[in-house]
């Protein structure tokens, strides 16, 4: 029952929301498409929270994604024991770093009166959810060692079976509860993404990297020299 | 030659009375909203002083603008890699305290207070948190009129000789109204990772696309004039829009329209977009010259032909020909760019102030012989100060402008008093009689349509089918449901 919910219902609902709500919001209301930074109002505490969080979570997330996208490469990469140990310790460190960031950001929202007007329920929900996600990740990395390896043989094929519309829950069914919660948290975050400020994740600065520094917009269709 | 048109504002600093009517009209139209309370797209500051936001001119703090390193221009703060790594925490971003915490007064307490021994007062509360404020610590013009102390003036980064303000009685001051300069090389545009800020090709107005902006905040510090603001409510950047809904219909900007001192001129300049970057590689003290070289003569046939090829309409060419801005900036060379050394090539120009006409003599001040002007170098506002503000430190540029202004006044004074007016006064300063006539009209009796020559945009010529059914300007969404 729980397995069906976490490993079949939740991921498909999350995916459907991501695929349909995101473009809908993009097309109808981009005026709320922002990272909603609060640096302008409070920056001292923010520095100690926002930097650890992002610098911790981005590489960890990239590691998870790399396993999904290129499981073969990752397998041979991790075949070397030294590499595996190194990756595991770096991953754990980064996870702790991210968790620390979350734990700085959460009380910051509560304690600063000036942030009251810019703090909404969704901010708390996201922060708590992300903190729990980071905490469960750290727990798994500590007490269920060599996760970067067994992840490739369990969660990754399961995720691919999801994509193939033939979900193989058996890959995940026997894991301890904490790991199931970690997976559920991940799906929940994906489900919330299109409704919250998390849309700022969907950002590729391609234009910024390749365009000339100055940007012109012409109202008339005549093509102008650069 | 890549000829483009630009709408430009000129400020005659001699005539600014520091009334803030400009700021208020701008606030009423554009920034009287949640999240924008602290924004003053037009602000007026007292110089010497630290301005709004505090110390905006000090690029050691905010790292705005460009630097020329050898053969290239680069943003002072960081490159593209640094930008992407600083998206979570933008190290140079000005914070609320650098502006001020916007406040209002609880007037309801005046009539709703319980009966007591004391007069009820309208208590002050923060427009952000809504909480009562114990003390107001700043405002948009906190050091207005020097704020009754030399503390603010002494912090002015343009003042080489702090001695000048040690004795309060010998101090000088002037007002400096500021808007976004709608620069030719805008640092705000270059700094935006979302590519939300752009320069309009047709009139050069620099705008933030509110649909594209994601609140990365690099523009707020990259603009060396601190004229992009972060809206804490919408989570996006906003800036002066040069009142484009007004200028597009041939009306002048709200600030210029409401200006009590009639100090502002709005008109068209034609410039060569290909020469901008080269010009900005020049050393600081040659930048005013470089600015002028980029601006083209609207009466030159080859310039007009190249402009037409780029889609500049006849109406715009005519406006460029009559432009008061061209006369003041290039033809007679009176108006100077504000801090050209920030290298954004600002398109707002300032005629330096001549008043007060008291001159300095050793430690004291003496009034010059009645009706005449003191020698240039004895003017109370030090040349060096004006040069730091308006000429990248080049004193000759400022001296020559002041000489022209003095000559103009002397010549017109003679004329007004029916004394024989000596044209050589003018010629020695680089002007002539026709110039004196034009400038005299512009400075004094010239009316609205002389001070502002703004060609309307020919919207009907530009893809009318895409505009049909759109609702208003700005965010062009069709009303009702559907696409
Ligand atoms: S003044 Fe600042 S905001 Fe305005 S165009 Fe120049 S760099 Fe951009
Ligand atoms: S309205 Fe005109 S005179 Fe008054 S402060 Fe503004 S620029 Fe100066």
Write up this protein.
- The complex is a heterodimer of chains A (about 230) and B (about 475).
- Chain A is mainly α.
- Chain A contains nine helices and one strand, in the order H-H-H-H-H-H-H-H-H-E.
- Chain A has a single domain (about 1-35, about 45-205), classed as Up-down Bundle (Fumarate Reductase Cytochrome B subunit), CATH 1.20.950.
- Helix content of chain A is about 65%, strand content about 0%.
- In chain A, helix 1 (about 1-30) packs parallel to helix 8 (about 175-190).
- The longest helix of chain A is centred in the middle third of the chain and has 31 residues, at about 80-110.
- Chain B is an alpha+beta fold and about 475 residues long.
- Chain B has a domain at about 10-100 and about 135-255: Alpha-Beta Plaits (2-Layer Sandwich), CATH 3.30.70.20.
- In chain B, the strands form seven sheets. Chain B has a five-stranded mixed sheet with strand order 13-12-1-15-14. Chain B has a two-stranded antiparallel ribbon with strand order 2-7.
- In chain B, helix 15 (about 385-390) crosses helix 16.
- The radius of gyration of chain B is 24 Å and the shape is globular.
- The interface between A and B is large, with 44 and 54 residues.
- Strand 1 of chain A pairs parallel with strand 8 (about 195-200) of chain B.
- The structure holds iron/sulfur cluster (SF4) (2 copies).
- One iron/sulfur cluster binds near residues 206 and 239 of chain B.
């Amino acid at each position: 029952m729980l397995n069906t919910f976490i490993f079949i219902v939740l991921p498909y609902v999350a995916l459907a929301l991501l695929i349909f709500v995101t473009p809908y919001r993009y097309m109808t209301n981009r005026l709320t498409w922002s990272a909603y930074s609060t640096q302008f109002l409070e920056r001292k505490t923010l520095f100690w929270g926002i930097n650890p969080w992002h610098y911790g979570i981005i590489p960890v997330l990239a590691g998870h994604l790399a396993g999904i996208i290129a499981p073969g490469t990752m397998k041979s990469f991790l075949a070397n024991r030294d590499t595996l140990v190194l990756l595991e310790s770096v991953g754990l460190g980064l996870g702790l770093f991210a968790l620390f960031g979350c734990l700085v950001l959460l009380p910051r929202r509560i304690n600063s009166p000036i942030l009251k007007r810019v703090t909404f329920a969704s901010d708390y929900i996201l922060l708590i959810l992300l903190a729990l996600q980071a905490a469960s990740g750290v727990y798994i990395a500590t007490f269920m060692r060599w996760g970067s390896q067994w992840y490739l043989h369990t969660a990754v094929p399961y995720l691919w079976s999801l994509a193939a519309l033939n979900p193989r829950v058996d890959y995940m069914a026997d894991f301890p509860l904490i790991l199931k919660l970690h997976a559920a948290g991940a799906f929940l975050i994906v489900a919330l993404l299109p409704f919250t400020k998390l849309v700022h994740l969907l950002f590729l600065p391609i234009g910024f990297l390749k365009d000339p520094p100055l940007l012109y917009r012409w109202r008339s269709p005549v093509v102008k020299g650069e | 030659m890549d000829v483009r048109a630009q709408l430009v504002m000129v400020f005659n600093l001699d005539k600014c009375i520091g009334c803030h009517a400009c700021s208020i009209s701008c606030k009423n139209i554009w920034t009287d909203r949640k999240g924008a309370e602290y924004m003053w797209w037009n602000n007026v500051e007292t110089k010497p002083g630290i301005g709004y936001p505090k110390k905006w001119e000090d690029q050691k703090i905010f790292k705005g603008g460009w630097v020329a390193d050898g053969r290239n221009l680069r943003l002072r703060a960081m490159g593209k890699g640094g930008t992407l790594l600083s998206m979570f925490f933008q190290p140079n971003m000005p914070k609320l305290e650098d502006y001020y915490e916007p406040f209002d007064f609880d007037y309801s307490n005046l009539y709703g207070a319980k009966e007591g021994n004391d007069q009820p007062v309208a208590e002050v509360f923060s427009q952000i948190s809504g909480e009562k404020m114990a003390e107001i610590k700043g405002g948009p013009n906190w050091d207005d009129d020097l704020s009754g102390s030399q503390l603010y003036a002494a912090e002015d980064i343009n003042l080489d000789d702090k001695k000048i303000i040690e004795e309060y009685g010998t101090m000088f001051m002037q007002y400096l109204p500021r808007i976004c300069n709608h620069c030719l090389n805008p640092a705000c545009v270059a700094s935006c990772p979302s590519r939300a800020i752009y320069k309009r090709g047709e009139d050069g107005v620099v705008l933030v696309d509110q649909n594209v902006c994601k609140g990365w905040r690099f523009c707020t510090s990259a603009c060396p004039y601190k004229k992009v603001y972060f809206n804490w409510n919408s989570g996006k950047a906003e800036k002066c829009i040069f009142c484009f809904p007004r200028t597009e219909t041939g009306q002048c900007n709200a600030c210029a329209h409401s200006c009590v001192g009639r100090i502002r001129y709005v008109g068209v300049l034609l410039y060569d977009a290909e020469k901008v970057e080269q010009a900005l590689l020049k050393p600081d003290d040659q930048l005013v010259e470089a600015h002028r070289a980029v601006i083209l003569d609207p009466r030159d046939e080859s310039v007009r032909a190249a402009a037409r090829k780029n889609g500049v309409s006849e109406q715009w060419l005519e406006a460029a020909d009559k432009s008061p801005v061209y006369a003041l900036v290039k033809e007679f060379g009176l108006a100077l760019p504000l801090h050209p050394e920030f290298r954004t090539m600002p398109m707002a120009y300032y005629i330096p102030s001549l008043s007060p006409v008291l001159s300095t003599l050793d430690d004291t001040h003496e009034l010059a012989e009645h009706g005449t002007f003191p020698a240039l170098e004895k003017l109370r506002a030090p040349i060096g100060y004006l040069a730091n503000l308006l000429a990248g430190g080049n004193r000759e540029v400022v001296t020559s402008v002041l000489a022209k202004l003095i000559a103009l006044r002397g010549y017109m004074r003679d004329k007004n008093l029916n004394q024989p007016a000596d044209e050589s006064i003018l010629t020695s300063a680089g002007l002539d009689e026709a110039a004196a006539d034009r400038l005299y009209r512009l400075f004094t009796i010239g009316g609205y349509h002389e001070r502002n020559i703004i060609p309307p945009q020919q919207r009907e010529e530009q893809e009318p089918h895409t505009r049909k059914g759109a609702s208003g300007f700005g965010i062009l969404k069709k009303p009702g449901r559907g696409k």
